[in-house]
Structure formats: structure tokens, C-alpha cells
């Protein structure tokens, strides 16, 4: 016996083609998982932190020197940063001037890598392979809540040798990859 089933506007009806008897559909309804509607991609706004130390002199052989404070602000939903890329530049040979590079959660937003923050880096330490290198910190799970912001520090330990008085080091964020925790959509980063 062949049966024909017609689905219309959420109702189900069926009739046996040979017998013309009504079919009774049993079982649980089939349904896909819940879908979350968004009004677009989550947005992660990146700016210089309010307590970024700016240009200044640092001593060779220093540890925990903040090169940059970045403020990350999430809009639309909670977001997880999975990678953070920093380009190094300046007149110093970065591979000689920097012995280690870290990403630090600036929990108190003071722009300084405090002892407790240095003890639990978000990423690093890593070495700088060459002058003017771009360093990628990957595999991160750094979360930023929707409607809130957090500060990340790019921190260096400087070398004693290979540095000339007056040479400069600059750190610039080149790429941040983050994803919305609910939508799994990649975050857009304006600017």
C-alpha cells in the first residue's frame, strides 16, 4: 500500500491511497536545535587603553615592561579572542632587544604588568625570531563580556646585550581574531 502525506502550516494529514483511510501519525515531532537570531556579527572594538604608558625610556635588562595596553570592548554578545597578532618595529633589532614577549590580562587596568598578572600570562613567553617580526599568540580563550571591556598588555623582558642607547621599540596590533560565544560568528573589528 502506498501512502501520501501532506504537510501544511504545521498540521499533518495523511490518507491511504488505496484504502482512503485516514492515517494517524504517531511519534515525537522532528525539530532542529534552537537557533539564536542576531542583528549582525558581534563587534569587538579595539582601542589604546586609557593607561597605555606611551613613549618613554626603559632600561636594558628590564622585566615586565609594558609596550602597549589594548582595550577590547564587546558588543552584541560575549566574545572569545582566539588569536592576537603584534608587529614589532623601531630602530632596535627586536630579536636582540627583547628576550621574551607576553600577553597579560591587565585585571586592574593600570597599564602595568603587576606581579600577580605576570605570574599568569594569557600567552607567552615567546621569543622574537627576527627584527621587525610579527608575533602571533594563538590558541587563546580570552573572554570579553558583551557590554564590557577588558585590557590586554603586550609585555616584554628586555635584553642587556645587543641594545644601543637611544634605540626604539614599538608594538602595534595587526590582527585580533574573536568569535561570538552564542552565534559562533566571527567578530567584526571596526576601524
Question: Could you walk me through the main structural features you see in this protein, from its secondary elements to its overall organization?
Answer:
With 191 residues, this protein is mainly β. The protein contains two helices and ten strands. It has helices spanning 94-97, 115-119; strands at 3-8, 11-16, 43-48, 65-75, 79-89, 98-105, 123-126, 134-144, 149-158, 170-180. The strands form three sheets. A five-stranded antiparallel β-sheet has the order 3-4-9-6-7. A three-stranded antiparallel β-sheet has the order 8-5-10, with no helix packed on it. It is elongated and about 95 Å long.
Described by strand count, sense and barrel closure, the largest sheet is: 5 strands, antiparallel
Please give the alpha-carbon distance between the first and last residues: 65 Å
Q: How would you state the average pLDDT, rounded? A: 85
- What is the share of helical residues? under 10%
Continuous helix count: 2
Structural class category: mainly beta
Task: Note the overall shape.
Answer: elongated
* Strands in their spatial order, largest beta sheet: 3-4-9-6-7
Q: Would you list the SSEs in sequence order as H and E?
A: EEEEEHEHEEEE
Unreliable segments of 5+ consecutive residues: 5-11
Amino acid at each position: 500500500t502506498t501512502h501520501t502525506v501532506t504537510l501544511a502550516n504545521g498540521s499533518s494529514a495523511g490518507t491511504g491511497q488505496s484504502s482512503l483511510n485516514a492515517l494517524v501519525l504517531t511519534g515525537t515531532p522532528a525539530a532542529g536545535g534552537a537557533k539564536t537570531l542576531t542583528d549582525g556579527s558581534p563587534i569587538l572594538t579595539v582601542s589604546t587603553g586609557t593607561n597605555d604608558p606611551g613613549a618613554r625610556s626603559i632600561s636594558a635588562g628590564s622585566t615586565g615592561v609594558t609596550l602597549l595596553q589594548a582595550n577590547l570592548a564587546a558588543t552584541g554578545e560575549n566574545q572569545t579572542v582566539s588569536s592576537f597578532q603584534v608587529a614589532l618595529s623601531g630602530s632596535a633589532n627586536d630579536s636582540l632587544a627583547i628576550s621574551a614577549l607576553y600577553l597579560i590580562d591587565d585585571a586592574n587596568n593600570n597599564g602595568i604588568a603587576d606581579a600577580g598578572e605576570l605570574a599568569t600570562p594569557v600567552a607567552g613567553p615567546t621569543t622574537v625570531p627576527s627584527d621587525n617580526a610579527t608575533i602571533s599568540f594563538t590558541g587563546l580563550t580570552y573572554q570579553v563580556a558583551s557590554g564590557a571591556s577588558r585590557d590586554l598588555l603586550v609585555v616584554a623582558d628586555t635584553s642587556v646585550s645587543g641594545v644601543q642607547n637611544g634605540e626604539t621599540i614599538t608594538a602595534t596590533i595587526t590582527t585580533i581574531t574573536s568569535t561570538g560565544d552564542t552565534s559562533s560568528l566571527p567578530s567584526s573589528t571596526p576601524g
